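Sharing a chain and its predicted structure for anyone who wants a worked example. Both blocks are below, sequence first, tokens second.
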Amino acid sequence: MQDIKIENLTIGQNHKPFIIAEMSGNHNQSLERALQIVDAAAEAGAHAIKLQTYTADTMTLKGILKIEDKNSLWYGRELYELYEEAYTPWEWHKPIFERAKEKGMLCFSTPFDETAVDFLEDLGVSFYKIASFENNDLPLLKKVAQTGKPVIISTGAATLSQINEAVESLRNNGCKDLVLLKCTSTYPATPENTNLLTIPHLSQAFDCLVGLSDHTMGIGAAVASVALGARVIEKHFTLRRADGGVDSAFSIEPQELKSLVIESERAFLALGKVQYGVQKAEEKSLIFKRSIYAVADIKAGENLTTQNIRVIRPGYGLQPKYYETLLGKTAHKAIKKGTPLSWENLL
């Protein structure tokens, strides 16, 4: 699978994970706070900040759904009102994009209808994200694909067949650079329903780069995903969960985002390659291996016993595999306590 180049960054199997801070509605309807979130994400080392481009009217209609799931963070809320609270005003997009650029960070967005795609094209967006609940909106996918720009798509709440339909729609309409994100569309998600083992299967099934859109608390699942091939990680991000907001409860804070950037890169670097034997970096440590030593003075002609020879550190003597062979043998010459055994002083 080929690398994806977006402006000055590269997403690829042999590149460190691409970390996306999802602002979502955590701006709490304050542009000043939105810009502070951009600054904090950049300071933490995120590679990109992601917005969502919609209005309540492009998402749904008034009065058609009230959330009745008592386990939902949004229990009792009317869907239309929720989106009114969470949406990012379109006139904010340009200053947010500009602030991200000033900070050396990419900014992009998830469009939720065709008018949002047109708007983002006018802003010169470099790439797109498709949310899980829109991965079945084939007309929207067609519109996004026809821009010819890279697409990252979440696969939450979709069967393998539905993911295949989405991928085919994107590829058949001009999308050449594609990333699929494993996603569990619950808010928050749990480690138990995250199912990271899906990540390598997604990559094999669709021959593309893969990653994780992570709604779990903390960064453990995200860091673990790197070992399974995730090269894009998306996490909801806020300044402080205590400030509230529609997504705050499952968003990470600046110090956590910084830790995610650091630890995901460490996980990537630690993958390395299949390796056995002594690495160059280990050569100086060989002295700490165990070997056979005289632990008491041994006279010439005296038998070697468990009382006068032992396997200890350092590793200057004969290898421990010879210990049982040596027991009962006769010393060729006198051996002082603390001497590493060698064939020369035994034979």
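Comments welcome. The mean pLDDT is 97.
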